[in-house]
Amino acid sequence: VRLACLDVPHFSVQSIVRGDPELVDAPLVVTDGNSLVDLSAAAVGLGLHPSMTLPQARAVAPEAKFRPRSLELEAAAAAALGDVGAAFSPRVELAGPGHIFVDVGGLGRLWPSELELARAMATMAERLGLTVRVGVAHDKVTSRIAAVVADEPVIVAYSPAFLAPLPIEALFAAVDADAELVATLRRWGVRRIGELATLPSGGVALRLGAGGARLAQIARGEAQDALVPRPEPLVFEEGLELEWPVEDLTALVFVLRRLVENLVARLTCRGLSANGLLLQLKLDRGRVDPTARAGAGTDVRSVSVAAPTRHVPTLVELARLALERTPPPAPVTALSLQLTSARARPAQLGFFEPAGPSPDKLATTLARLAALVGEDRVGSPQLPDSHLNTFIVEKFEPTPAAKVEAEARALALHALRPPSNAEVQLDRGRPRYLTAEGIAGQVLAAAGPYRVRDGWWQSPIAREYYDMELSDGAVYRVFQDSQGWFVEGWYE
Amino acid sequence: VAASAARIAEVLAGLRARTARLQELPAGRVVPFGLGPVDEALGGGLPRGRVVEAYGPRGSGRLSLALMLLRSAQAQGELVAIVDVADAFDPRGACLDLARLLWVRPKNMADGLLAIDRVLDAGGFGAAVLYLGQAWMREGAGLRLQRRAEQAKCALLVVGQRAQLGSFSAASLELKRARPSWSGGGLQPLLLDGAFTCVEVVRNKLGPPGDSQSLAFSR
């Protein structure tokens, strides 16, 4: 068994920086009520310490950035960390806030060495906005200690030899040991993990109980805690609380883009694409119309994507269009974005056929086109069983090539949508002069009428069609029904 | 055994024919219109990676010519696209494999240019048609279309009422006013059979201009 531990130092700080990358080098202090939860390296450099209270910290370093702890951002960061693990192995355990275990056994065929694998994990996490430390060992606790002791990835081949020279505090930190137990071991003069390993196991258990026996077992490299893989996550959601209410759509879209980027990076880890967006906007309560319906403090909108895609500009564009169509009724104080995931459609290439666009690129193109012209105006046309000039547009999903008669020379119709109202002068029952928008001319020849009846079972349509050659040189398809005369188009 | 051997020989002959067709498709291959002299003037058809424009008056058969190009590309197994700025393409009677046709109906010219840009950006479309109807492109669009078609290695036909691309098109095809063909008359009912038109290569960077071909479309 080989397990990798991915540990995120200063998890609360990194969660907030992930949501607001401008704070990356800032002296950031995460607070919870009056106490300090976490400090960035720059904040420590200003002389701040986690044991300080908030007023003390403000007095010592007024220039520091103070942010309240956000459980929502921490949950998103933890999910992102899980996605990093899932990009490498299907067996991932979300062990606690800011660290996960990944079963990396059997990945030797994919990666030249465990060090390369660990570096790739760190790089992937970096892409998702998290700086991680990685340790690889035979058991969970050793891999966790290996992750915590150094910023560079640590590969442990033999646990007792690796653990022996380490200070005993590393062990206490890894297993969250009981304070009384720690004090006892210090009183005994145990300074290194190796010293604890050499103590007789029976005597340690007798004097320190089960907790002490477990510490000694870990120190000897004999702990074999089982990996508990987490269930498959189904939700890709990120949220952000804004520092002040935002009314301007451009600013809102700017913030939204960051959420989309984070979520798309997570989807990429799992080889998935987005096929829908669910946007939840929390509105400024003070500005919401008090007479509005209940729940008016939240604006929820769902946006469908024409085809699964990971193209950030397309997803942002779709969200922007949805917001522009119906702007939020009040300034937005927080927003949350959820992407529904789907696998990109696989394609079987034909051996003798030219390669079309890759499924991923085609899906992205369709989504971009749908965002541009509307979902109902892009696709492949399909013809319903009707005598009328109707069609439906379906999602463009190319089927294997069918035989096409290349030599066919069919006369095409330039259709007018909707048909243009027309006036037709008759002479002894035959069309003599045709007038419509942009069309006027004497009828030189006319074929028809051809009677078409359709939809009698639902909404009956009865038309009489004519082909009319006008003096302008074109041949028009004209019909008459109970509403009057219409030009359906001209032969082009 | 003899029947099996004959069958194997038949399959092998089919495979040879198909692989021979593959070998005939160099990187800069063409999509023929199926019009002898016009194709010859263009060096075998509309080259992939180049833009050609076709224009003519209303009813001259511009859309029918564009569909001939798409049919020809589909017969080669290609995916095709039509960006229909005029929203006028009628799929009924187009004689195309509609499942392998991407039809985009932008609401205006600006969206149309963006749409063809995105279609070409996807790559993998053998031929594409930008059908403008009566609309006009903005200046400078020709250069962008030319570059995008070149990057996408797609045979792009721009169909409008007048020549708009200038030197950015590899060739300009002008369609003359079509002449309808009727049958019947007298005691018989009059029927529209089709139309005759004439395509002339008025500008050509791919060969000598001036070739023309009369063309009959049938209903």
Helical residue percent band of chain A: 25-40%
Instruction: Give me the side-by-side strand order of the main sheet of chain A.
Output: 15-16-17-18-19-20
Average pLDDT taken over every residue of chain A: 87
Assess the beta-strand content of chain A as a share of residues.
Answer: 25-35%
Number of helices of chain A: 14
Number of helices of chain B: 5
Outline the biggest β-sheet of chain A.
6 strands, antiparallel, barrel
Please mark out the parts of chain A with pLDDT under 50 across 5 or more consecutive residues, or reply none. Answer: none
Helices and strands of chain B: which structural class? alpha/beta
- Could you tell me how far the N terminus lies from the C terminus of chain B, measured between alpha carbons in angstroms? 49 Å
Low-confidence stretches of chain B: 24-28
- Overall pLDDT confidence of chain B: 87
Q: Strand tally of chain B, please?
A: 11
Please, what is the oligomeric state?
heterodimer
* Shape field of chain A: elongated
**Beginning-to-end CA distance, first to last residue of chain A:** 71 Å
What is the H/E order of chain B?
HEHEEHEEHEHEEEEE
* Greatest chain-chain contact: A-B, 61 and 75 residues
What's the arrangement of secondary structure elements?
The complex is a heterodimer of chains A (492) and B (219).
Chain A: E1 3-7, H1 11-19, E2 28-32, E3 35-39, H2 41-45, H3 54-60, E4 65-68, H4 71-86, E5 92-96, E6 99-103, H5 114-127, E7 133-137, H6 140-149, E8 154-155, H7 159-163, H8 168-175, H9 179-188, H10 193-198, H11 201-219, E9 236-246, H12 249-269, E10 273-283, E11 298-309, H13 312-325, E12 332-342, H14 359-373, E13 378-382, E14 392-394, E15 413-427, E16 430-436, E17 439-454, E18 461-470, E19 475-481, E20 484-491
Parallel strand pairs in A: 2-4, 7-8
Antiparallel strand pairs in A: 1-6, 1-7, 2-3, 5-6, 9-12, 10-11, 10-12, 13-14, 15-16, 15-20, 16-17, 17-18, 18-19, 19-20
Helix pairs in contact in A: 1-4, 4-12, 6-8, 12-13, 13-14
Chain B: H1 2-23, E1 30-31, H2 36-41, E2 46-47, E3 51-55, H3 62-75, E4 79-84, E5 101-104, H4 109-122, E6 125-131, H5 141-152, E7 155-160, E8 171-175, E9 179-185, E10 188-204, E11 212-218
Parallel strand pairs in B: 3-7, 3-8, 4-5, 4-6, 6-7
Antiparallel strand pairs in B: 1-2, 8-10, 9-10, 10-11
